[in-house]
Amino acid sequence: ECTVTADEVSGNLYKSVYVEDATGGLKLNLINSGGLYTGDRIRVNLNNVVLNEYGDVVQLDSIDVQKHVYKLSSGNIVTPKKITFSEINALMGFGGILKYQSRLVLLDSVEFAAGDKMETYADAVNKTTKEITLVNSNGGSGTAIVRNSGYSNFASSTVPCGKGYVVVVLGQFGSTPQFTLRDINDVKLSSGGCPLIAKSFNNGSVTSGGWSTYKVSGNINWTVASYNGQLYGNITNYVSGNQACETWLISPEFDMSTAPSPYLTFQSAYNYSGPALQVYVLSNYTSGDPNAAISQTLSPTLSGGSWNWVQSGNVSLTTGPNKRIAFKYTVTGTSGSTWEIDDIAVFAQ
């Protein structure tokens, strides 16, 4: 006997629901969609039901709702378990199984990563899944990957910018915790806090949203790479014979004339020896070599190497119109490092 904690109504789940009893949570995979709803108290007959796992998530498979499920009552209150970012990694138990796997949980003091704000939850046009990231809004460590289906009824909705809490189902894929939204109404964030510009690379494109690249020398360009489900901007001269190069990644133009105390944030990671990534503000840039348009040289905190992701901190920007953020990758000899960047955003206080 158990209670349904997440159903298929929003379309973010398909032919599956999540249930809990006093001992923990479990995923139920259904032969046919529909028939079970959040708050239903049910009894599951295990005859001809398969117990297995996928990506280290334990599940009951091949459930026929008509044959295997008896509904005891409906409308029961489902209360999520409140956890913190600091607990997520600690929750990984013996054999990589999460202690609270498939439980409904509440993550407090969170916001979506800067590059995901004002993006859509998923791709409603192509019906493809999208991963967005929750971060600690208090500035602490920890992230949470939230997977959203392109078939969900909130796929085309805009990811909010504020801070607050979210209710999600806690799952995993291998050693990586993953979270599933039941419904957009489980996102409880305050208004405000939207960036002037943002870039996350989650759609697989370097140049979407008005971003551009420019090669001053060499034939090396920025690309989108991925690791453990995370998409990010990537550049390396290793792929083309370690050639010398100078390549820029340039934001769309934005106005900081009236922005109070504007600042830039992003994440970076790198490996191998070579010149450091350089970051600038360009003014009145339209096309061609960006060096002539540099109006401010920035000094963000950059990764120390070994592929370690590091937050840049809040990098102060000078106010003014017709500004762009630009990342400059340079290799003068043959030895070049590989740089990765993500969640680029400009905010005003």
Give your account of this protein's structure.
It is built from two helices and 27 strands. With 349 residues, the protein is mainly beta. The longest helix is centred in the first third of the chain and has 4 residues, at 65-68. The chain is elongated and about 70 Å long.
**SS element count, helices:** 2
What is the H-and-E element order?
Answer: EEEEEEHEEHEEEEEEEEEEEEEEEEEEE
Provide the gyration radius in Å. 23 Å
Helix content: under 10%
Strand content: over 45%
The N- to C-terminal Cα distance equals: 51 Å
Strand order of the largest sheet: 5-6-3-2-1-4-7
- Taken from the alpha-carbon principal axes, the silhouette is elongated
Q: Assign the structural class, choosing from mainly alpha, mainly beta, alpha/beta, alpha+beta, or little secondary structure.
A: mainly beta
Question: Major beta sheet, specifics?
Answer: 7 strands, mixed
Number of strands: 27
Average pLDDT works out at 91
Uncertain regions spanning at least 5 consecutive residues: none
